[in-house]
Amino acid sequence: MWGGYFAVLEVEKLGRVSSSMRAILLLLLSLVACTARAAGPHQQFLYLWTASADSTAPDFLAVLDVTEDSGRYGRLVTTVPVPGRGGRPHHTEYAIADGWLFANGFASGRSFVFDLSVPAAPRLAAEFGDLEGLTHPHSYIPLPSGNRLVTFQMRHGGGRVRAGGLVEVTSAGVPVRARSADYPGADSGLRVYSAAVVPSLDRIVTTSTDMVLDFPASRLVQVWRLSDLTLLHTIPLPDGPAGDEGLLSAEPRVLDDGKTVIVSTFHCGLFLLGGLDGDAPSARLVASLPRPREGSCAVPAVAGRYWLMTAPGGAVTSFDLSDPTAPREVGRITLEDGNEPHWLAVSPDGRRVVVTGYQGMASRVVIARLDPNTGALALDQRFREEGASEAGFRMQGKTWPHGGNAPGIPHGAVFSRP
Questions:
Q1: Is-contact 184 166, C-beta < 8 A?
Q2: Which of 70, 134, 250, 389 could anchor a disulfide with 152, C-beta 3.0 to 4.6 Å?
Q3: Rounded to the nearest 5 degrees, what angle is found at the Cα of 87, between the Cα atoms of 82 and 92?
């Protein structure tokens, strides 16, 4: 700021400069000074897709300020309620690709689209329900076109429930094209869960886990052609030494090279896919974690060469994927007893990881810090409320900006883009 001020003084000394030229120079230098004043650290926000513990109150999107050097780090900014009650907020997008955020209420079968053009003050821009005969949307994946690929768990008809499928939608939730995941002889428990888009190979990979738990656990992965949504292959995930690592195929993720895909399972297996662009794609187990009966692995994230995943026993772990055929665990944090982390999402700079979960974490959000050089993890102790004895943001004991004071139960969580 001061540099711009002194430059203005120097212009004032140029007595032989015409008054009109001097005015132009002063205007330009004033703009430079204003730009300098505004060029501080960019604000960043954390969006928490939240259910209300009060069934008569609306679900909502909570916005926290997570600007690194802000005096309001970790403070609530606002909330955005959505229509309806008891929607059971579930998945959002895993990362924000543009100025929109898609999220679903799994119990209601509704999808909500938030406009993030003013990051500190999102607004509900659109919503939609069943599309093309498909019900219960689950995951949202950005496409190169700017549209979203939505996974739908199921299709109802003829007194039977069958496999769902994929629908491409615009940012307004208008369907562009759709395809079923069903095929002759399909496993009755096939339910499209999540997806990864691989534009460089013209492929989509989807997984299968039944959210309603009406059928035996599936181990299926499906491979689609991105350009026309043709279902090409359905393959089972094999098991390893524990005998059940391939069950409940969960989350596929594309690695930094833009073509390698790893699929995680709720039974804590990591599977490397091969031959996605060929006639015989395959999957092999490359890592797994011990899984006590009461625990499971859930929503992972990729940050550079690191695979981050929740683990039984209240842990969040990081694996080095420099060699995807042999992941190495390089970092771990373990939360207090009774906390079960479930959802992870990484900040755009790859250095922070938001964690939501169940049990002791049902109304608590924490942030872990990731060392990009080593993969080490540490709990962000700065991310805590004033006077709190533990790190994290508690969604209890608050009067929400939209009204009400029932505890919030967050699920999907995602950082704003810079």
A1: no
A2: 134
A3: 75
36 lies in a domain? yes
The beta strands (E) that lie in 25-133 are given as 45-52, 60-65, 75-81, 89-92, 100-105, 110-115, 123-128
Residue 9's domain spans which residues?
1-40
Q: Exposed (0-12), middle (13-18) or buried (19+): which is 289, by Cβ within 10 Å?
A: buried
> Phi and psi (nearest 5°) for 26?
-65, -40
**CA-closest candidate to residue 60, choices 84, 79, 88:** 79
Angle at 59 between CA 79 and CA 347, to 5 degrees: 55
Please tell me the total number of residues recorded for the chain in this structure.
Answer: 418
pLDDT of residue 296: 80
The residue among 414, 366, 359 whose CA lies nearest residue 394 is 366
Between CA 43 and CA 73, with CA 89 as vertex, the angle to 5 degrees is 25
* pLDDT per position as a tens digit, 75-89: 999 999 999 998 999
More confident residue, 4 or 234: 234
Q: Is residue 262 part of a domain?
A: no
In angstroms, how far apart are the furthest CA atoms of the chain?
A: 89
How many domains is the chain built from? Answer: 1
**The model's pTM:** 0.89
Helix axes 2-12 and 19-38, enclosed angle (nearest 10) = 170
> What tokens were used for 402?
């939209």
pLDDT tens digit sequence for 161-172: 889 999 999 999
Q: Which two tokens stand for residue 381?
A: 């102790």
Rounded to whole angstroms, how far apart are CA atoms 331 and 342? 17
**Location of structure tokens 């399972």:** 265
- Given pLDDT bands bounded at 50, 70 and 90, which one contains residue 22? low
Residue 25 lies in a domain: yes
Return the structure tokens found at 149.
């690929």
In a domain, 34, yes or no: yes
